[in-house]
Amino acid sequence: MQLLDELKEYLRIDGDDENRSLSTFIQSAQFYLENAGVKQPSDYYLIVEGKDVFAQHRLAIMTLATHFYENRIAITPSTIKTAQQPIPYGLQSMILQLKWVNPDELSVQQ
């Protein structure tokens, strides 16, 4: 599975019409997390001893990409205060937890 396929399943989107936008949202979410100090794994689907090691990384990406997807509105000076939606609170908590994860160390446990 790829992140794009997982996001489409998460958002319940059929077809490929929005693949380009969704891919942009995924990449933006990854950059957002990296800029917040979260190291990204090279394999988001690593399984170690039956455990999905990077599930929380993927959930953070899905949460943020969904936020971008659902808040696609034009921001103008008159709507800036009412139209902006903050990043989901649960994502802030995930980012704090993921900052302490070293994906390289978890990948070596394989």
Automatic annotation (TrEMBL):
Pfam families: Phage_connect_1. Gene3D superfamilies: Phage gp6-like head-tail connector protein. Transmembrane segments: none annotated. Coiled coil: none annotated. This is Phage gp6-like head-tail connector protein. It comes from Lysinibacillus mangiferihumi.
